[in-house]
Amino acid sequence: GAVVSQHPSRVICKSGTSVKIECRSLDFQATTMFWYRQFPKQSLMLMATSNEGSKATYEQGVEKDKFLINHASLTLSTLTVTSAHPEDSSFYICSARFPQGAVEAFFGQGTRLTVV
Amino acid sequence: GEDVEQSLFLSVREGDSSVINCTYTDSSSTYLYWYKQEPGAGLQLLTYIFSNMDMKQDQRLTVLLNKKDKHLSLRIADTQTGDSAIYFCAGGGKLIFGQGTELSVKP
User: Is B99 left (phi over 0), alpha (psi -120 to 50) or beta?
Assistant: First the structure.
């Protein structure tokens, strides 16, 4: 099946620094990618929908200046957590779909972010 | 907005059947999905059902869909210890997830 690669799988950063997470669709072109956040023992919360060549659509309550999303190409979307704080520590997962009408969404392996 | 609800825990004995339930609000979902997540890992698509179907069977997995009640279930036959994980149902255009059901399989 199709593969979505997410990098890094784990990152530890100091409070106040920024962290970039990459999501790549390895063998298909994804016009839309989704970014989720998951707290321990909880569900995936959709943060934003990333659209190639245009601005991301953020869900209510998600700070767009805090979580910068760039979808520069059909195979790459990035999420940058700016000025990270300990409360941003979480598991971040990206997802990509084939273009219009696709059944399946493919998920990256997730990134465990720890802010110290 | 869209909402998906699941029971949080299920414990079964090895060899028994497991049934995980899910209710949803977005009736416009074309497909409804079941994902499996093992500790510290991403999500694995287990199966999905098209919204105009009532049932789908895939080896040990059976999905039942009651559109009238907006109720989805996943049955795992002959549950094994390797099936222990968190199971998420999901649907809707934005792929909204339920809270996840933690399945514990005891030998």
Answer: alpha
* Span between the terminal Cα atoms of chain A, in Å: 37
CB A47 within 8 A of CB A58: yes
How many distinct helices (H) and strands (E) make up chain A? 0, 11
Q: Check A108 against B88: CB less than 8 A apart.
A: no
A68-114 pLDDT per residue, tens: 999 888 899 999 999 999 999 999 999 987 665 566 678 888 999 99
**Per-residue b/e over A23-49, b at no fewer than 16 CB within 10 Å?**
bbbeebebbbbbbbbbeeeebbbbbbb
| Token duo for residue A57 | 């659509």
CA distance A104 to A47: 19
Whether B31 has its CB under 8 Å from any CB of chain A: the answer is yes
Contact B41 A110 (CB under 8 A): yes
SS3 A86: helix
Which residues fall within 8 angstroms of residue A85, CB to CB, at 6 or more apart?
A15, A16, A115
